[in-house]
Prior knowledge:
CATH superfamily of the domain at 47-193: Glutaredoxin
CATH topology of the domain at 47-193: Glutaredoxin
Strand order of the largest sheet: 1-10-9-4-5-6-2-3
Number of helices: 4
Structural class: alpha/beta
Mean pLDDT: 80
Strand content: 15-25%
Helix content: 25-40%
Largest sheet: 8 strands, mixed
CATH architecture of the domain at 47-193: 3-Layer(aba) Sandwich
Oligomer: single chain
Order of helices and strands: HEEEEHEHEEEEEH
Amino acid sequence: xxxxxxxxxxxxxxxxxxxxxxxxxxxxxxxxxxxxxxxxxxxxxxxxxxxxxxxxxxxxxxxxxxxxxxxxxxxxxxxxxxxxxxxxxxxxxxxxxxxxxxxxxxxxxxxxxxxxxxxxxxxxxxxxxxxxxxxxxxxxxxxxxxxxxxxxxxxxxxxxxxxxxxxxxxxxxxxxxxxxxxxxxxxxxxxxxxxxxxxxxxxxxxxxxxx
Length: 211
């Protein structure tokens, strides 16, 4: 469900509502994984077969992004502020994406859109024509699917002057935006989003917004 900034309330009510959402994410994502890791210690370890989660130093503000969803609706991702966002870039021609998308789908289903927003962005040139049968085959039912076939926000770039909101260092690649609204880091390759390590990582970035 998309948050409506105009309906969040003000003052004490708004602060309590935000705290409730963040505490819910901590419980859902980190509670089953053991004791919480203190924010001062940095994010917990999370890695794929070849790459660890890379922390951006310093974290940077999440760029303004408008993309078309699979149903044709154009969304501004600023509407998702206040929750942890996991932005995943994938394509039908990517073998690792075929394995990772169902894990992301189950992650979104397990915690709900209230606490975590998984945004899966397809990079296929053929857009919906390529993605829809692929998603049906994998039985993807809970993810919000968007498209960036022209590489407007995600692409490989060797030009240091080319400002890319989400550089593609490999495929698939997932970026984490914390509940504070900052682009915190990324991980390249097929990640096990069903693992305790994944839930600890996402729970960590929910907690940092309270401190």
